[in-house]
Amino acid sequence: MFLTYLRRELRRRKRQAAIIALGLALGIGLVITVTAVSGGVNRAQGDVLHSLYGQDTAITVTKAPSFGSGGPGGFRFPAGGNGSRPSAGTKVSVDNLTSTALGTISATEVAAVTRLNGVAAAAGGLTLNDTKLSFTIPSQQSSGGGFGGAGGSPGGGSGSGHFPTPISVNGVELAGNAAALGPLSTAKLVSGRTLAASDANADVALVSSSYATAHKLSAGSTVTLAKTRFKVVGVVSAGSGNGTDVYIPLARAQALGTAQGNSLKGKVNTIYVAAGSATAITTVSKEISAALPGTTVTNQNNLAKQLTGSVASASSLASNLGRWLAIAVLAAAFALASLMTTAAVSRRVREFGTLKALGWTSRRIVGQVVGESLVVGVIGGAAGIALGFAGSALVGVFAPTLTASVGSATGSATPGGARTFGGPPGGFGGGGGFRQLASSATPTVHVPLTATVTIGAVAAAVILAVAGGLVAGAFGGWRAGRLRPAAALARIG
Amino acid sequence: MYKLAGVTKDYPKGREVVHALRGVDIVIEDGEWLAIQGPTGHGKTTLLQMLGGLDRPTSGSILLGGDDLAQLREAEVTRVRAASIGFIFQTFNLVPTLSAQENVETALVPLRTPPAERRARAARALADVGLADRAGHLPSELSGGQQQRVAIARALVKEPKVLLADEPTGNLDEDTRDDIISLLEGLWRDKHLTMVLVTHDTAIARRAERRGVMKHGKLTTSNHAGQAPPSRR
C-alpha cells in the first residue's frame, strides 16, 4: 500500500514533483560542476607549479632579537676624549649600519641548514638599517643647536629638527646558487649591471629604482653607508613588498654592520632556503625548526598565492563566487521543495484526516509524506548528477586555456643572471638545482582547464539529494502530523 | 455499547467560548440504530466526533465497551478507531489516487492485515455493496452513489462494532439516497451493527430505531411515536 499510494500520489502531482526535482537538480548539478571546476583549477595550478618550479623553494629562517636590543637607530655616539660629554659647539656626525628588528644567526647555523636533507640551497643575508645624524653639541643652557637629520641624503647634509629616515640595506650573498636566493633574486635589473661573485669584498652597491629616483642616483653615483662610500653599479626594480633601498655584498655588510653594539662579522639575520621539491617544503621546514630551535621558519605552503594570471583568477572564482552561488541555489532548492511539499500536504487535509479517522497513525502518515519527498529528492539528485557531468563536460569544451605566471622565478638582477628552479631529474644537490633562465623566456605557462567529476562529488550529490528530500519531507510531515482527524468531518460550503 | 455521561465540548472563538455540547447523556445499546437530527451548527457532527474518538470532550465520559474514550491515550484511541469504528462521510472522502479496491484496503492497513488477505477482504466488501466490477476504478471514474458504496465498504471491511455516518446521503440525488439508506439498513441488520447516523432528512431518520434531536448542544431522544421500530429478522 505504501509504494502504491506513493507512486499514485507523485503521478497525481507530477508537475509539482518535477519542479521540486528540477530545483534540486539545478542546485546539485551546480555543486558538482563547481567542485569539478575547482578540482580542475587545482590540477591546473599543480601543472603550472610543476612546469615552472620542477622543485620548490621559499623558506626563510629568522630569529627574534634578544631583549634589550637598541631602539631605532641604535646610535653609537662618539665619546669625548676622556669619556665625558663633548664640549659645546662640537660638531658630531654619526652613520650607523645596524641590525635591530632581527636577531643574529651564525655562519655555522647557516651551514647546518645547508646540510639538511631536502635542502637544495641556503643563503644567509643581512637586513640592516643605515641611519645618519649630524648635529652640534648645544651649550647646556642653550635651547638651540638642533639636530640635523641626514637620513635620506647620500651626501650626509644636515637638516634641522626632524628625525632621520634610515636607509634600508640588504647584504646579499653573491657566490654560487646562494646568489639566487634572497630579496635581490626577485628584482629586475633596470640599468647598469648586477652584482657578481667577484664583488664579494668590493664597495659596490645596487639601489632600488624608487630610491634612485628620490635621490637622483644612477649607475656611477655613490652612496655612503657606515661612512663608507659605495659605488652604484646598477639600478634594480624590486617586487612589491620588497622595501630594500640598497643592496651590498654580504661580506661588506658584515664588516660594517653592528647589532647591539656587536660586530656582525660571520653573522647573518636571515637564512633563505630552497627546498628540494614542492612536497619536501613542509618536511624541510620541520627539520630546520628542529636544527635551529628558537628560530622562526616561514614557508609558502600554499603556492597558489604566488600565482598570477587567469589560473589564479579561475581558482578564486571557483572557490569563492562559485561555491557561494552553488550553496545559494541549493538552499533555494531546499526551501522551494519544503514550501511546495507543505503546500501539497495542506491540500490533502481531508485525505489525511480521513486516514487518521480510519486508524492510520500520525507516524504512518508522516512516513508517507517523507517517502514521497525522498523519491522526489532522489530523482532530483539523479538529474543533478547528470547535469553535473554535462556541466563539467561543457567546461572542458568551452573553457579557455588558462595562463599563469609565477613571481618567484628569480629576477634579472640576480647576481650571475636570472634563474628558475627546477633542473634535470635528480639534479638537486649541493651545487645544482637551478636552471639559468633564457633571456627570452618568460615564467608563464598555458594550461587547459578540465573539470572532472569525482566519486566524492557524486557521493556528495546523493547525500544532498537525500537531505533535500528529508528536509522537504520533514516540513510536510510536521504539517501532516499536526492534522486533527476531526478535519475529515468538516463540512464544505 | 455507548454510555455518555455529562459530555460537554467547548471551543474558544476569539474572546468567546462556543458551547458545542452541553451535558449530553445517552446510552446507545449494542445493535441499536440511532438517527440524530437537528439544525446546522447545533452539535450533531461534534457529537459524532466524540463517539468516534476523533476529538476529546471538555468534560464528561464516553464509555465504549468499558473503555472511556475521553481518558485513553491518543495511541489507544487510534487503535480502538482502527479496529472497532467505521466512518461514512457526507463527501465520501475517498483517496483520489487509489482505486475502489485500494480505498477499501486502507481501512485494513492499520490492522497490519497481510496483503493477500487484505485484498480478498476488500474484494468481498465491494461485492457486498454491489461494486465487484468496479474494483479497479478510481473515485473520479465512479458516480456519487458508487463512491458512497465504496465508502460503506471501507467502513465495514474491518467488521467494526460501530458505524458512524455523517449525512451519508447529503450529496446524493433522491433515488441514490434511497439506495444507500436501504443498503445501510440491510447491512445494519445483517451484521448486527450499532449505527449512529446524522441526517437532515426526516424520512431517513424515521427508518431508524431511535431518533435524537440536537438543539443548542443538548440531545433529546425518543422512539418512533406510534410506530414500531424497524425490527431485525
Return the structural class of chain B: alpha/beta
The span between the termini of chain A is: 32 Å
Which residue ranges of chain B are poorly predicted, with pLDDT under 50 across at least 5 consecutive positions? 225-233
* Order of the strands making up the biggest sheet of chain B: 6-7-8-3-9-10
CATH class of chain B: Alpha Beta
Main pleated sheet of chain A = 12 strands, mixed
SSE succession of chain B = EEEHEEHEHHHEHEHEE
Largest interface by Cβ-Cβ < 8 Å: A-B, 26 and 32 residues
Q: What Rg of chain A is obtained from the alpha carbons, in whole angstroms?
A: 35 Å
Classify the helix fraction of chain B into a percent range: 25-40%
* Proportion of residues in extended strands of chain A: 15-25%
Number of helices of chain B: 7
Main structural class of chain A = alpha+beta
CATH fold name of chain B, please?
Rossmann fold
**Second-tier CATH architecture of chain B:** 3-Layer(aba) Sandwich
Total count of strands of chain B: 10
Shape of chain A: elongated
Give a count of the beta strands of chain A, DSSP E runs of length 2 or more.
Answer: 21
End-to-end Cα distance of chain B = 21 Å
Task: Give a description of the structure.
The complex is a heterodimer of chains A (493) and B (233). By secondary structure, chain A is an alpha+beta fold. Chain A has 2 domains: 193 residues, no CATH class; 241 residues, no CATH class. Chain A has 10 helices and 21 strands. In chain A, the strands form 5 sheets. In chain A, strands 1, 2, 4, 5, 6, 7, 8, 9, 10, 11, 15 and 16 form a 12-stranded mixed beta sheet that branches. In chain A, strand 12 and strand 13 form a beta hairpin. The longest helix of chain A has 39 residues. About 11% of the residues of chain A have low confidence. Chain B is of the alpha/beta class and 233 residues long. Chain B has one domain: 3-Layer(aba) Sandwich (Rossmann fold). Chain B has 7 helices and 10 strands. In chain B, a hairpin with a 2-residue loop joins strand 9 and strand 10. In chain B, 48% of the residues are buried. The chains are: A alpha+beta (493), B alpha/beta (233). At the A-B interface, helix 1 and helix 8 of A face helix 1 and helix 2 of B.
